[in-house]
Write a structure and sequence with these properties.
A hairpin with a 2-residue loop joins strand 1 (91-98) and strand 2 (101-108). The protein is globular and about 40 Å long. It has helices at residues 8-16, 32-41, 53-71, 75-88, 114-133, and strands spanning 91-98, 101-108, 138-140, 149-151. The strands form two sheets. The protein has a two-stranded antiparallel sheet with strand order 1-2. The protein has a two-stranded antiparallel sheet with strand order 3-4. The two termini are 17 Å apart. The longest helix has 20 residues, at 114-133. It is built from five helices and four strands, in the order ααααββαββ. By secondary structure, the protein is of the alpha+beta class.
Length: 166
């Protein structure tokens, strides 16, 4: 089993990669129970209770909207997509200590809204990656038929695959 993500960017990538074309059924979030387990694994146990099919649908919708940043034709389009996600999910953000480390915490207007809670964390992390590393560092795995995403953090900008498996 993989280690849980420890950064907002790591959580964003995990959210995006819950659609996996290598799996017999590419949809890895196939119901409220699985979504709850996933949310606990990525460090959001507060979102994992009383989930419904509507939460699953809203999570999937968010995942698709975030993916547009990787599929955009330009850096400006990528940023525009992510900024639109942020605008649709307004929050109050603050830096707070969580588990002994500093982390941005985003308070959604509706705390029980899974997509509303994840949207700012994921969007801001991806926007920061674009700002700090450049949009060309956002990639889609080159191993056919894999469609998982990654952010290239290598020194020589050589990453082409989402994982060692690919």
């Amino acid at each position: 089993m993989r280690a849980a993500p420890t950064t907002d960017l790591g959580r964003a990538i995990e959210v995006l990669n819950t659609w996996d074309t290598f799996a017999p059924d590419p949809e890895l979030i196939d119901g409220p129970e699985i979504l709850g387990r996933f949310l606990r694994w990525i460090g959001h146990p507060e979102l994992a209770s009383a989930l419904t099919d509507r939460d699953v649908e809203s999570f999937r919708n968010l995942r698709g909207r975030l993916r547009m940043a990787f599929e955009a034709e330009s850096e400006a389009d990528s940023v525009k997509h992510l900024n639109r996600v942020l605008a649709d999910h307004p929050t109050v953000s603050e830096l707070a200590q969580v588990g002994g480390e500093w982390r941005f915490v985003h308070q959604a207007s509706r705390p029980d809204d899974v997509a509303g809670a994840l949207a700012p964390e994921c969007s801001i992390a991806l926007l920061a990656a674009i700002r700090d590393r450049g949009w060309k560092r956002l990639g889609i795995c080159a191993a056919d038929p894999c469609t998982c995403v990654y952010v290239d953090q290598s020194r020589n900008r050589s990453r082409r695959y989402c994982s060692d498996l690919c």
